[in-house]
Amino acid sequence: MSVSDYEQAWSDFKSCMVERGYPPFELANYNGIYDMPQLHFTGTQDEWERYKDDYDSCYFQISAIDAVYTMQVGNPNLYTDMYEAIADCLRREEAVPLDYTAEDLRRESGNDQGNGENPYEYFDPKDPVFRGCKVANGWSSAYADDEGVDLWHGDGGNRDNE
Question: Which of 106, 124, 130, 156 has the fewest CB atoms within 10 Å around its CB?
């Protein structure tokens, strides 16, 4: 699958969300892998439920393209263990030594409390390569100081977390 097919699918996803009444927003882009940005939820419970339904409906339209592309980029060896797939991706991206294992990642990520301390020996947890390998293998993560969007009370543009 081509990069342009993948990018078009995510553009279609954004259009679908905007057509459902959300303001235009920027996707998170981790080393070429797209994901929803961190959300700053300011809506009601009903608005949250509507968002989840809208997201699911729009994402369903691109889910096959997203799955194939992220697999070919992040897990071409088809590992069933997410940690092994991410460790392999990191080795292929030369972000870690060749002897870095799934167990190393499992141990280090178990110590990642999201408090700003870096438990990883070879990379920063916010490094785009690391985050791209994670997102490509179904492991999204957001940090408190990530830019985020307010799709409920605002223009939807990225803003710093307050």
Answer: 124
7-11, 24-28, 30-34 — most confident range: 7-11
Domain residues of the chain, as ranges?
Answer: 3-71+144-149, 78-136
Q: Which amino acid type is present at position 40?
A: H
* Model pTM score: 0.78
> For 64-87, what is each residue's pLDDT tens digit?
999 999 999 899 999 999 999 999
CB under 8 Å to 127, separation ≥6 — which residues? 95
Pick from 89, 104, 98: nearest CA to 32? 89
Q: Residue written as tokens 């605002």?
A: 154
- Can you tell me whether residue 29 is helix, strand or coil? strand
SS (H, E, C) 6-67: HHHHHHHHHHHHHHCCCCCCCCEEECCEEECCEECCCCCHHHHHHHHHHHHHHHHCCHHHHH
Which H/E stretch holds residue 55?
helix 45-60
